[in-house]
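Re: Re: ligand-bound prediction request (bumping)

Still looking for help on this. To restate: I need the protein modeled with S-adenosylmethionine bound, output as structure tokens. Inputs repeated here so nobody has to scroll up.
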Amino acid sequence: MDEWINDINDIEFESHGPVRRALKTMVINPLVNYMPAGLTKGLLKLAKSELAHANWNDPGGWRSMVISYEGKPGQVADKILVGGGSVPTALRNRKRLGAAVLTKLIEQNDGESAHILCLGAGPGITIIEALKSTESPAHATLVDISNDAFDYGQQLADRHGVGDRVRYVLGDVRDIDELLAEPPAIVTMIGICEYLTDEQIVEIITAAASVMPPGAAIVFNSISKKHGTDRFFRRVFGLHMNHRSPLELQALMGQAGFANFTAIPEPLGVYHMIVGRRLP
Ligand SMILES: C[S@@+](CC[C@H](N)C(=O)[O-])C[C@H]1O[C@@H](n2cnc3c(N)ncnc32)[C@H](O)[C@@H]1O
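Reply:
Sorry for the wait, this slipped through. Here it is.
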């Protein structure tokens, strides 16, 4: 394991105490998983849940991520889902862990300004947090197949004083060699692998590897079924996530020439943030 990982110890994570964990395992998760999906959907519609609507419109899209990341929804149903749900809580932890890992990688970079390439970036919240939290020079190219999130992301970056260091690019990450002028020191695939098949991951990562110099870092996350609500997400939100262990993902990344992986869990154990290096 890289030694610098040990320095990542001042993150304000959220966690669930033993009573809440037991309540979730024995009561809440079985209830939400096995309650008739039509009834749950009806209740969420009645309660005007923004999180549910965001997922119904675009399952696993960037807007539902933002609602969870911000953690301060207006509707009562969303306050319960976003504040207490394991996945939204783990998502906020993932964002903090991802930003801390990226900050470290930026600070380790030898070049003039670390170029970060974000694949499936959405608004790029994790990257914006990393850019604003370090004095070291860095800039990011944020690629997404939809430009829906770009205005939101640019405004967020402007508010945090890093607006001139982000560039949004509309495109399919599988065509990354045609979209990119400058080789990246760091590539991120955060919040995207869980929506892709093995074949799609290998295709994307092979394209990314073709623009990365040896030693460049790749940052991605795994997701485990430890959140206990996969049945709920599939039936109620229409969200079909592919759960893979860090080792399973590392094996896929290995097929495209990446190695020397380090996997760091967030406290709920739902997500691991994984860093690997492009082999020569
Ligand atoms: C769940 S969002 C994650 C956004 C952001 N990375 C985050 O962690 O908040 C997944 C994003 O990947 C984008 N995406 C999916 N497939 C893509 C592709 N082939 N090329 C570019 N973007 C893609 C989607 O449009 C969406 O914005």
